[in-house]
């Protein structure tokens, strides 16, 4: 059987979230004991918790919510590229030497080590021109190991809008530390949440045969 890489964050109390956004909580509602036959619990979380897919409605007033997005981009052939040398912004010049002529899905690794223990504002972002380049090569999805394509302090969301223009999908907060650059099958479906602007995903990469 081909190897599976789990590229999802562990969802747990205290996990890093966007500054000001809802902290993750998981509390018991019923506890299995002599009186009660089951454990049941309640989740409190932001739609952008951990490894997640953005819906267009996250940033576009008339954008589609997550339950309506095409699922095809979240499943299928994918290339993982090492962008650890890119500095603050991934520019086309960083991609050109390693980007295949045709791609369907592109995941970019930027962290040396994914920051599990706390929020980092100094994450690497993606230039809108880099989104154009990926779209020209055929990409239907871009995935990053940072919490956003755009800088934390920039409200223009230029890279998000460029993705939207090209009809691409977005994954954020991937954990790519253990994944060698190369070709894989991506599996990372959003939940069917009515009206939601994003959804957590369980993101996997499957090694290709041969
Ligand atoms: N959770 C948030 C709370 C407030 C403001 C932004 C966010 C984001 O997550 C934005 C980010 N642009 C994201 O790419 O999805
Ligand atoms: Zn998001
Ligand atoms: Zn986003």
From TrEMBL:
EC number(s) stated in the UniProt entry for this protein: 3.5.1.9
Active-site residue list: 58
Pfam families: Cyclase
Keyword hit for Hydrolase: yes
Reaction(s) this enzyme catalyzes, per UniProt: N-formyl-L-kynurenine + H2O = L-kynurenine + formate + H(+)
InterPro entries registered for this protein in UniProt: KFase/CYL (IPR007325), KFase_sf (IPR037175), Kynurenine_formamidase_bac (IPR017484)
Chain sites annotated for binding Zn(2+) 2: 54, 160, 172
Biological process terms in GO annotation: L-tryptophan catabolic process to kynurenine
Chain sites annotated for binding substrate: 18
Pathway linked to the protein: Amino-acid degradation; L-tryptophan degradation via kynurenine pathway; L-kynurenine from L-tryptophan: step 2/2
Matching PANTHER family: CYCLASE-LIKE PROTEIN 2, KYNURENINE FORMAMIDASE
Assembly: Homodimer.
Protein name: Kynurenine formamidase
Organism, scientific name: Billgrantia kenyensis
